[in-house]
Amino acid sequence: MPGLVVNRIAPGFLAATLGGFPDGLVVVTGSSGKSTTTKMLVAILEAHGKSIFTNPSTANIAQGLTSALLERVDLRGRIDAQIGVLEMDEGHGAQIAPSLAPRVVLLTNVMTDQIDRFHDSEKVAAMLATIAGRATQSVVVNADDGMLLDIVAGQHTATEVVRFGVSRSVLDANPRGLGYTRTASGRIDPTEGTVVTGVNGRSATVSIAGESVEIALPARGTHYAVDAAGALSAAEAVLGNSFDPATAAAAVSAVEPVFGRGEVVTVRGQRVEFVLVQNPASFQLNIDSLERGLDQIFVAVGSDVRDPSYLWPVDSSPLGRVTIVSGSKAYEMALQLSYQGVMIGTVNPDLPAALDEFLALPAPEKGIKTVVFTADSMRRSRAHLGLA
């Protein structure tokens, strides 16, 4: 609400404040991975002694960004930080981009996402191109995403293009791919760019301009290693010669999960892992990374999935058995799971009651209790459980 009010009465506030950082503004945008990549990038820059302003709540639309600024801004409209690092929603970012001059723009990927807003991938790519076109120094791009390569190929400017991605061996180890609308691999020279060369659960090996470093990931999966590669590339673009791979690797390894994204918490004496899924690709990648044979899984799909057919391309069969299906779209999700051969315990659209039932069960025989939810159900679950 504060951001909504200020944007109405002082429409130039957001752009003016974002343009006031002495060492510039860094924008992180794309379909998926923005929050984790932003958190990693902030950690790396702070480890190198930089003071950072960011939006840690993941509020990435115009009013959310303005509200985050209002928490730190002084009466002169300035923030005591050297660099701004902001996650931006693709649509809202494209709207305010003409008034911004970010030093670095990081593009994560283009996926089938929020089809009620964006309709198709070409629309998303056009929005990202608008944002990337405002970069004054560097555009950091996922070189395994064919649509992003088209964006930077069409930018006839002097802006530096910095690429990151995964090695052929890592790509081959993910037979379903990494969810991009159009994959393009083999475009990076490992001696020049940042390349993920190996992933093992919550750890990864990354080559930074030919120097190999080991990093811990905040959650399982190659997609989190790709987030780390993007953050490392952007940090190197910002810091230049002062960038230290060892310092950066240590900073990434210490990053905790952004809430809901592979986060493990203790609730009512039970250890629970929260797995946030936000689009079909995210759903697939996270399901594939879960340990097989878990005997207590809770799946909740909420009102953010307006058309449940959106999730039908997902192969949910690796879940095996789901204890409870909940959320406002519980019956639609249960149908999808059934068609994939997943055994279902109960279906209960009453999310608070279903959570209480799930947490009251004895500890699982294998793994820990696992909650897979979409964004609406994630927010409602955290509120019901009293989590910040």
Description:
This protein has 388 residues and is of the alpha/beta class. It folds into 2 domains: 2-253, UDP-N-acetylmuramoyl-L-alanine:D-glutamate ligase (3-Layer(aba) Sandwich), CATH 3.40.1190.10; 261-385, Alpha-Beta Complex (Protein-Tyrosine Phosphatase, Chain A). It contains 15 helices and 15 strands. It has a 9-stranded mixed sheet, sandwiched between helices. A 6-stranded mixed sheet has the order 10-11-15-12-13-14, sandwiched between helices. The model has no long low-confidence stretch (mean pLDDT 87).
Which labels suit this protein?
UDP-N-acetylmuramoyl-L-alanine:D-glutamate ligase, Protein-Tyrosine Phosphatase, Chain A, nine-stranded mixed beta sheet, six-stranded mixed beta sheet, 15 helices, 15 strands, MurT_C, Mur_ligase_cen, acid-amino acid ligase activity
